[in-house]
Amino acid sequence: MKRVRGFTLVSAIFLLVILAMLGAFMTTFSTTQHIDSANDLQGSRGYRAARMGSEWAVAMICNGAGCASPLTACPASPSVMDIMPDGFTVTVTCAMNSYSEGVVTRYVFWITSTATSGGSPGSLGYIERSVNAFIEFP
Fold this sequence. Notes:
The protein has about 140 residues and is α+β, with helices and mostly antiparallel strands. The protein has one domain (about 5-135). Helix content is about 40%, strand content about 30%. It contains one helix and four strands. It has a four-stranded antiparallel sheet with strand order 1-2-3-4. A hairpin with an 8-residue loop joins β1 (about 80) and β2. The longest helix has about 55 residues, at about 5-60. The relative contact order is 0.16.
């Protein structure tokens, strides 16, 4: 009668390989979660930076007069803001249309503010958020 030897060694190696694969999976999963969380936070910051750009454009159009005497043309467009909130580059574009209703001329301004950070599109950590707004003055 032959004795079977080495069965315990094969079982131990199998268990070590399975546990190592499980550990690698958990490490990858954890890293992915941390990167997603950081991108989510940066996305919120990007939205706030883009919104700041649109509010800056509204202030430029209102000409500091509480919109009682607004501009009749867009500010220089596209404008890159001098301030870089949270490391974002904010680009603001404006388009203006006017139309008349009797003796009243109305001005409609379309504003697009885009905040970008993190290199080029498709790279890890690239964030881009855009905010659109319009203003109409009688």
